[in-house]
Amino acid sequence: MADNFQSLSRIKCKELHSKLMTPEAAAALIPPGATLGMSGFTGSGYPKRIPGALAERIRAAHAKGEAFKIKLLTGASTAPELDGVLAEVDGIELRMPFQGDPVCRKKINAGDINYIDIHLSHVTQQVQAGYYGKLDIAVIEVVGIREDGSLIPSASVGNNKTWIEQADKVLIEVNYALSEKLEGMHDIAGTPLPPHREPILIHKTDDRIGDPYYHCPADKIIGIVETNDRDRVNSFSEPDEVAKKIASHILNFLEKEVEKGILPPNLLPLQSGVGDVSNAVISGLEHGEFENLTAYTEVIQDGMLGLIKSGKLTKVSATALSLSPEAVDDLNENIDFYRERIILRPQEISNHPEVIRRLGTIAINGMLEADIYGNVNSTHVMGSSMMNGIGGSGDFARNSFLSFFVRPSVAKDGDISGIVPMVSHVDQTEHDVQIIVTEQGLADLRGLAPRQRAKAIIENCAHPDYKEKLWDYFNRAQESGAQHTPHILSEALSWHDKYLKTGSMK
User: Fold this and answer.
1) Alpha-carbon span 392 to 7, nearest angstrom
2) For 374-417, what is each residue's pLDDT tens digit?
3) Which terminus of the chain has a smaller tally of CB atoms within 10 A, N or C?
4) What is the pLDDT of residues 124-139, one digit of tens each?
5) CA 410: distance to chain centroid?
6) 369 catalytic, yes or no?
7) Of the listed 141, 173, 298, 439, which one is catalytic?
8) Which uninterrupted H or E stretch holds 474?
9) Residue among 173, 121, 102 nearest 387 (CA)
10) Who contacts 246 (Cβ-Cβ below 8 Å, separation ≥6)?
11) What pTM did the predictor assign?
12) Can you list the alpha helix ranges (DSSP code H) found in 286-406?
């Protein structure tokens, strides 16, 4: 463990000093078969040392022929130090709700890990209702513990409030690598199960309804580990020409919506999914004409941090920071500036349909593929292999005022078309998808019937290598059978089948 910090200096509650221990001692408190709620959302705020120590314990148990697996619940994706090490030693029986680790993905697609992919806004209520049984232990990263025992959240909030409240026992990692001045950036609030719910009184992006801290009874905390480790390295490439074209299509569309009076001059609160394309779209706004922007989203990436610094983006609400090392340095050096403009909330609030609908967000999310009628596949490669999960895209797609889905028109050097006759898996139905964008163009599907949607998508979004094939399929589908949503069922998934057999959809 790194030792360039003063031990106990961030643990101000003296009652908890006796609970300081090594990662190995903390991992020893986790029994086989336990259900764990761990912090972490999109590579930030996850525990850095206890998962690795637990993985070594599991490895040793397996070497002796002993069974040892755990059920793992998080906020969203974590990092190799959590998902990766536990998956590598075959230590995960069940994973929920979102992951992005290559080792974990491989084990899921091999059938070695049971993976449950759900909307991020649904996690809290499902755990509260007992869908996953008893939550045994919460493992939560914080940046400090105050004199009264309250916990200062770190770079992500995710489901941490729920894990602390629902778990029988709690392990804490206090991470010295992040600035203590994150204190005050958070707004921790939640919702009880029906019939005890009340309105969530967020009417604008920067409304606060909760408390800056987590609260956990001291007798529930069974161990504390100190760390000095940065979050997962998130590196974002400079936008390529494809990403720039996609961003240009979206910005031009938004400008026209303002001219029509459909959107106000400063737009509506923005939501952007994770990835280079989404990050490029947000970065593109820095050079556009829009001022006094706001965002109500899940994750703050480098592009959004740049928008804040430029003054274009005035207030941002999210549940996590997901930054490159350079952006982390910028955040720490200018934390007083950013703390006044950023609010981090639990994901049940950041992704809550009630708030999204009220604020009227503009959602921009990535996809794996779309079909000619506007159904979107966000999760499954060729229908069967899980990529990462649906994340919060469904929360925002169904409830936003405007919902964009974006991707390049082709993949794998042109061997895969992003627009297909029928998607191989449906995450976002045509009822929730309003606007599809590739570098080829933008298809505005609002107010269009299925056959009209097909014409707009093929003409505007398909790559030239596949456009003629899509027109051929669509035209032949209209020659027989029902005509509301014309399909040739014997051919609808033939493109995917051809790729699996030959390595190309061409």
Assistant:
1) 38
2) 999 999 999 999 999 999 999 999 999 999 999 999 999 999 99
3) N
4) 999 999 999 999 999 9
5) 23
6) no
7) 298
8) helix 464-477
9) 102
10) 277, 280, 281, 406, 408, 437, 438, 439
11) 0.96
12) 302-310, 325-333, 335-339, 347-350, 353-359, 393-399
